[in-house]
Amino acid sequence: MVTKRRKLGAITILKGWSANCMLIFYIPLLCSFHVYCTAKDSLQYGEWIKDNGETLVSAGGEFELGFFTPNGSSGHKRYVGIWYTRDKQTVVWVANRDDPVINATGAFGFVNESNFLELQVWDTSIENTYWSAGYLGSLSMGFMNLTDFGNLVVYREDKQTPVWESFKNPTDTFLPGMSMDSNLILTSWRDRDDPGSGNFTVKVDVVEDDKKTLIIKKEGVIYWKNVDYGQLPLSNGMYFSALSGDFDYARLVMHFSGKLEFWYQSDTETELMQSEPSNNCSLYNFCGKFGSCNPNNKLACKCLPGFRPNVPHKWHSGDFSDGCIRNSVFCGDNDTFLSLKMMVVGENPNQYSVENNEMDCRKMCLTNCDCKSYSYESYEQGKCWIWKQDLVILQEEHPDGNNLFVRVAISDIGTVLTVPFYFNLLEYLLSF
């Protein structure tokens, strides 16, 4: 929102000076109050950057801050952003993303607002404010620095203690050195030429035992979800590794298309390593509860054996979101488990324990009526995962998938020794 600025703290020039004195006085002012003379990585109160090519450059030359116009955008819309010095088209942070300055009359720096310090983007011609970081403290705290990690940091008087930083106020990009906790949200651009707040956001939810869940939302509704519940190999493990700081040259971008992109960024190359959701099967609840998704099949969704479409007319019209329901009530002596290979489950399990073998894990589930499925991983210690909730985001033939055992009534699928069992499974497989 554009607001009227109150006090700029402008330079006052004394009357009665000769032209020569003014020239002598003016040259050092250019160097001390603006970034004219040499590349700088910091600003103090009373200094600012104007939209005439002035920029801040981090000490090691990795990142640059200044005014820019996105490729394809109207040239009169100007934004303050941070980009790689070696790749000026890759913008990693934008200050006034929702309120561009019109024409090249903008400035960026510290401002005195009622004797309190603010970091602002404003228009020097009409004195309107287009972005503010809010009140940052007393005027003596006016010192900021652009680091080689791409972080713009405002410090206290000691120039050691941060009071505000762009890493904690991101736009669409997660960089090495950032901390992705439950308070940090990345918001996509509106379009490739519009850095305004878009329709997609991504954040991390931390669940039990510090396990993390990545969630993309589209206009506030869950669009994609990926969980880290410790099974190996881990689906989309690069995302969680990047969030944990294991990659020094990686960045995550919440793209305006709704995909969370994993980029490898080095001094010599930039490569897109992964992008999710990669297909419809990756979308949250695309096949609904107990609906299994296979992107390689003409009909992506199918109810598991022992289940049927919850809303048949919607299912057959191509809307699978209502999922599937059981043919029979389970929990008794007539229960068994449907064995599924290379499966990925889109929700965290409710229970985890260490068991000697898969049979012990099976017994644990079978003796608990709340248990609807389990998975056993024999890697290192035997890990038994229990799901008590309805299964969603089931993907089969997934390269990072694991064996999954879903509890069903024997009467719904037959037994391994009867023809109906083979017929039901054959019908299930051939119907894709």
From TrEMBL:
Q: One Pfam family this chain carries?
A: PAN_2
Supply the alphabetized keyword list: Disulfide bond, Glycoprotein, Membrane, Signal, Transmembrane, Transmembrane helix
User: Which stretch is the leader sequence?
Assistant: none
UniProt xrefs under InterPro entries: Bulb-type_lectin_dom, Bulb-type_lectin_dom_sf, Pan_app, S_locus_glycoprot_dom
- Report domain Bulb-type lectin positions: 41-167
Q: Does the keyword Protein transport apply?
A: no
Q: Name one GO biological process term.
A: recognition of pollen
SMART domains, from UniProt? Answer: B_lectin, PAN_AP
Q: Could you tell me which CDD domains the record lists for this protein?
A: B_lectin, PAN_AP_plant
Superkingdom of the source?
A: Eukaryota
Q: Which residues form the Apple domain?
A: 331-409
Chain ranges passing through the membrane? 12-36
Give a yes or no for keyword Phosphoprotein in this entry: no
Q: What is this protein called?
A: Apple domain-containing protein
